[in-house]
Every structure is written in structure tokens, then in C-alpha cells.
Write a structure and sequence with these properties.
Number of domains: 3
Radius of gyration: 23 Å
Shape: globular
Structural class: alpha+beta
CATH topology of the largest domain: Endonuclease III, domain 1
CATH architecture of the largest domain: Orthogonal Bundle
Helix content: 40-55%
Distance between the termini: 42 Å
Length: 486
């Protein structure tokens, strides 16, 4: 069956599994829709399929006001087969083209701007600028529908340079100014956006929130992170100022509430949270590869919505991973809390019980002694080495870098081995193929009566059939083993 035939079946059946994976341009109306659009199904001869919303927009179609493409799950950061496109999408999602141009983006990716445009057109059907424009437009439309923010604040939050550009973009796309698109905000409380703002984050289905939350709960740094009921909370530092993010499930989506975070910073916070909770994972593609293995197929059956937990901050995650070397998850979590209390910045009364500190910055830990915290001298030296590497620029968490180069930069730091490098790449860089083959929990997952435990080299060889989704295989294998996974 061809891709066109698959899309045709999906749109006629309104298959929710394909939501966000392609878009339907209707030539008779000039509108593009999601596969789940409730409008009357157009005739086959009147539709064109696009791999992304940006491609549909660049072809001259405007978003449907019924199915609202801005509410579809996001394009996975690894969409397409090109590693350069995957890394480029991650940078665009973090706002790389808001204050820069395609030439600068291409330079960060190590290619020419012409080659980058060619790759984006081949794999996504749209240019990098079209992807960035559609991203801003969709985010602004969400804020119009879901909040009572003034239009000038929405323009700033979505990355528009001026309210005039914001208005012109909406008139060009929707044929009307943004004020006329604002829906009745039933149930939306009037709040001061400088104090709290809530937005709904669409996610791909199925989505196993309880499993993801349990992973974060076991590793939540006391004073910095907290899991209360079905909510995840943590302190964050945005442009030097403290704030709090709060996430919880809501009817198949995730609600993100931002406390004390100004509107110009809303978009990057939303994008980081999407990465952190892996909301755009291409579940169907992952399952297709991993279900070839009998063990993983059984685990997928019980956990079809597996996600790889990300990290709010790469340096913080690296510190946490080093602490987790050769000790239990619980012990590493306790020591992480001691470090936060001793060297983190107090945040005062944020109105959240248990959230007392920001995690320490590299400048503080580079000169920390770590006395009386339960940390060995060699482990303390490794933490200082990592902090110095970040300050010197030898170690960065820029998602545009090649995963192999990132691994080498970590391994060059004394005290860091292959397990830590793979674990950090998995969670901080969101590399879907990272795989800590020496992890005891992963090795134990294949234990059985009369079977000798696998060696790391054997597991590494076995995992080749799981590529490029080995990180998801690791989460599936960790889940049945309490206390595994750093």
C-alpha cells in the first residue's frame, strides 16, 4: 500500500492515530485540515496531502477553523530521515529563527543554507522559515483560544517582533484580524499573566502519564521538584528570575501552568516542556520497530504509550546522572537534594510546599567542596570537572550538535563513563537512539530460569535491531525493574 493510499484511508476513517502526521489540503476551499476534521469529507479528487502544516501553508492553504490544526500534536523532532533535519527542527522549536536567519541556522548545523533548504523541502515539504512561521502562528492561535491574554502579550509570547506583524500575519492567513478569532473563553479564569498562565499541550496518543510521572517522582530532587497527586511541579530559572512550572493530565492532553513567568518567555518554556515530557513521540513508528522483538512486543502491549523522560536542564541532569553511578536511585535523589539545599539559590515563598530552591548553576558547583553531603572525593571531583567543562564551553547541551560528538565531549571528562554519556544523551539531548547497554537494570530484564545474564556487548548487539528507537526500548525494559535507570 502506498503512502497516499494510507493517508486516504486515514482521512476517510478519521483515524486519530494519524493526527499531526499529515495534513489535508482541500483545493475547492483553500483550507488545510487534520485527518480528524469533523467537516464533511471532501472528494478524493479535491484533496492534496502534506507532510506538515508548514508545507500546506507554504502551498497557499489556510488553517481550518473547525479542526484547528494548531491543536494537533507537534511534528516529532526526528521527523524525516535526515539527521540534519531532525537537529534543525529541534533548534527551530527552541526559537532559533526568532532572532536569527537561515544562514545562521545552517552554520550551527554545519551545512550551507542552500543545502539546508533543500533538505527541509525534501523531508518536510517546506522551508525552515515556513516551519518557523507556522509554529509561531499556531502557538499564537492557541493562546487566543485558551487564554485571556491581551493581543500584544500574545504577539510577544509567540515571537512576533511587533503587534503589526502579528496582525498582518493573521489577516494574511485567516482573512481576519486576531481579535475576531478569539473564542468565548468559557471557564478560563482572569489571571495576571505575570503570576500564572495555563495552556493546553496536545500530545500523541497513547500517552502513559502515570508511568512518566512515576519516573520523575522517583528522581525528583527535593526542594527543586515535587510530584503531588497527578501533578509535576518544579522551580525554574528564566532569564535569571525564579518561577514554577506545573503539569498535569487533562482529557488526553497536558495542562501546563506557568507561575511568575513573563509572556515573552512562554513559548520557549512550552517547547522545553514538550521535550521534557516527550509529547510528540511518533508512537506508531516506534511500536513498528520495537514489536519485532518478542520481549519488547510483550512490554509494548502493557505500555503502548511509553515515553522517554527528558530534562529541564542538561547540566542539572548530568549532575544527577553522576550521582546515580553505582548507587540506588533513592540514594542519588537524596544526595541531589542536599546539593540543591547547600548550593542552590533559595526562591522564597512561591506558594508551593516543598519547592524551596533553584538547582545550582555551574559557577557554584565549580568551586563547591561538597563536604558532609555523602559524596566521595572522586565523585565530587567529577562534578567540579563537569561544571568547569560547561563554563569553559567544552561541554554544551546544544541540541544541534552531533550525538557522537556530544558523547565524546562527556567521555573526555575524568570520572564519566559510557553509561553516564548514553543516559545524558538520552534525556538531555533527547537522542532517541541513545542506549546505556551496561545498565544493570537493562541486563537483568533478560534474566530467566537457566539463562546466563547478558553481557553489555551482547545487549549492545541485540539492540541493533531496535534502532533508531533504542531509548524507548530502554524505558520499556526499565519499567518492570523498580529503581532502575539512574
Amino acid at each position: 500500500m502506498t503512502q497516499h493510499e494510507i493517508y486516504e484511508r486515514a482521512r476517510k476513517s478519521r483515524d486519530a492515530r494519524f493526527d499531526g502526521q499529515f495534513y489535508i489540503g482541500v483545493r475547492t476551499t483553500g483550507i488545510y485540515c487534520r485527518p480528524i476534521c469533523p467537516a464533511n469529507t471532501p472528494k478524493s479528487e479535491n484533496v492534496t496531502f502534506f507532510p506538515t502544516a508548514a508545507a500546506a501553508s507554504e502551498a497557499g492553504y489556510r488553517p481550518c477553523l473547525r479542526c484547528r490544526p494548531e491543536c494537533a500534536p507537534g511534528t516529532p523532532a526526528w521527523g524525516g530521515s535526515s539527521a540534519t533535519v531532525r537537529r534543525g527542527l529541534k533548534l527551530i522549536a527552541s526559537g532559533a529563527l526568532d532572532d536569527s536567519n537561515v544562514e545562521d541556522l545552517a552554520a550551527r548545523l554545519g551545512v550551507t543554507s542552500r543545502h539546508l533548504r533543500r533538505l527541509f523541502t525534501k523531508h518536510l515539504g517546506a522551508s525552515p522559515l515556513a516551519v518557523a512561521h507556522t509554529q509561531r502562528l499556531h502557538f499564537a492561535k492557541q493562546l487566543i483560544d485558551q487564554t485571556r491574554l491581551p493581543m500584544q502579550d500574545i504577539a510577544a509570547a509567540a515571537g512576533y517582533g511587533s503587534v503589526r506583524r502579528f496582525n498582518d500575519s493573521f489577516v494574511k492567513t485567516y482573512g481576519r484580524p486576531p481579535r475576531e478569532l478569539r473564542r468565548a473563553a468559557d471557564g478560563i479564569a482572569d489571571v495576571d499573566p505575570a503570576t500564572a498562565l495555563t495552556v493546553k499541550l496536545p500530545c500523541r496518543k497513547p500517552f502513559d502519564w502515570p508511568a512518566l510521572l512515576a519516573f520523575f517522582a522517583a528522581r525528583a530532587t527535593p526542594g527543586v521538584e515535587s510530584v503531588v497527586g497527578d501533578r509535576y511541579l518544579r522551580t525554574v530559572r528564566i532569564e535569571g528570575q525564579p518561577g514554577v512550572i506545573e503539569l498535569q493530565p487533562d482529557a488526553g492532553s497536558v495542562l501546563l501552568t506557568m507561575h511568575a513567568i513573563g509572556t515573552p518567555n512562554v513559548f520557549p518554556v512550552v517547547q522545553r516542556c514538550r521535550e521534557m515530557f516527550d509529547l510528540d513521540a511518533p508512537i506508531q513508528d516506534i511500536a513498528k520497530v520495537l514489536s519485532r522483538d518478542a520481549v519488547l512486543r510483550r512490554l509494548l502491549h502493557s505500555n503502548p504509550g511509553v515515553r522517554v523522560p527528558g530534562a529541564w536542564d542538561g547540566f542539572e541532569l548530568t549532575v544527577r546522572a553522576i550521582l546515580g553511578q553505582q548507587i540506588s536511585v533513592k540514594a542519588a535523589t537524596t544526595i541531589s537534594g542536599r546539593i540543591a539545599k547547600a548550593y542552590g539559590e533559595p526562591v522564597g515563598d512561591q506558594g508551593f510546599s516543598g519547592l524551596t530552591h533553584l538547582f545550582p548553576v555551574p559557577e557554584r558547583l565549580a568551586r563547591a567542596r561538597f563536604n558532609a553531603l555523602g559524596i566521595t572525593g572522586s565523585r565530587a571531583a567529577t562534578l567540579r570537572n563537569v561544571a568547569h567543562a560547561v563554563l569553559d564551553g567544552a561541554l554544551t547541551f546544544d541540541v544541534s550538535q552531533d550525538p557522537a560528538a556530544f558523547r565524546e565531549s562527556l567521555l573526555a571528562i575524568p570520572g564519566i563513563g559510557e553509561w553516564t554519556a548514553q543516559y545524558v544523551a538520552m534525556r538531555a539531548l533527547k537522542n532517541p537512539d541513545a542506549f546505556p547497554a551496561a545498565d544493570l537494570g537493562l541486563l537483568r530484564a533478560f534474566d530467566g530460569p537457566g539463562r546466563q545474564r547478558l553481557r553489555p556487548a551482547q545487549l549492545e548487539e541485540l539492540s541493533q535491531g531496535w534502532r533508531p528507537w533504542r531509548a524507548y526500548a530502554a524505558l520499556l525494559l526499565w519499567n518492570p525493574v523498580p529503581g532502575s535507570g539512574g
